[in-house]
Design a protein that fits this description.
80% of the residues lie in helices and 0% in strands. By secondary structure, the chain is mostly helical.
Length: 228
């Protein structure tokens, strides 16, 4: 039954999902962006804020897509602020509206977070942002139950998430646009230059957490203040 439904879906909508059709939609969207740039940037920004603010899945995928669509620097700037604002919204929702719910679900981690914050101050949050030991949505929610000030949470999160955001945005920006893929096929991705760039991008994705963990080990002796 499921196979029949999938086959029917492909039969009815297969043309809409073809690479050529998607490339046409991309061209139309880029034309619309040229006419209404602030609207497109604004909607993209709000989408990212909502995804992170409501702790919805897909932030990493969005970062890759934004890097692909907007290019590295624009995506990095947009995501840096959108992700931090969204994280702070989740932090505040946890603190003022969802405290009991969050405590019931993640209470076992709260004592550990409080203990580490007492030892290391905001440097502990900085470490969590650089090394994904916990999913970011868990960090946002549990930190809302700690004594950490919202403004400290904001600026430490923005600085701490920036390197990881840069790596993901760079990886996305190395993928060719759909028109190039439609015209050149696999050659657009598997050319020597493109393969090198993609290898660097995804190598950074794998190496970044390990390198960060090692580097941070040298700085744990100088924690940041938690009430700045």
């Amino acid at each position: 039954m499921a196979a029949a439904i999938i086959a029917l879906f492909i039969y009815e909508f297969g043309d809409l999902l073809s690479l050529e059709s998607l490339a046409t939609k991309e061209s139309q969207l880029r034309d619309f962006q040229n006419q209404h740039p602030w609207l497109v940037y604004g909607v993209a920004f709000l989408v990212y804020v909502v995804v992170t603010g409501l702790s919805l899945p897909g932030a990493a995928a969005l970062t890759l897509v934004f890097g692909w669509y907007f290019g590295f620097w624009r995506a990095l700037l947009m995501i840096s602020f959108a992700s931090t604002i969204g994280a702070t919204i989740a932090f505040l929702l946890s603190r003022y509206l969802l405290r009991d719910t969050v405590q019931g679900r993640f209470g076992d981690r709260l004592s550990s977070f409080n203990e580490q914050l007492e030892k290391e101050g905001a440097f502990y949050l900085f470490t969590l942002r650089l090394i994904p030991a916990f999913p970011f949505f868990v960090i946002n929610l549990v930190m809302g139950l700690t004594p950490l000030r919202a403004r400290t949470f904001y600026w430490v999160s923005q600085i701490g998430m920036l390197p990881g955001t840069a790596v993901y945005a760079y990886a996305g920006s190395r993928v060719p646009d759909l028109n190039t893929l439609a015209q050149d096929g696999a050659g657009a991705v598997f050319s020597t230059g493109q393969l090198t760039q993609l290898a660097i991008a995804f190598g950074l994705l794998g190496i970044f957490p390990l390198a960060t963990k090692k580097i941070l080990g040298h700085f744990r002796k100088s924690p940041l203040p938690s009430d700045d």
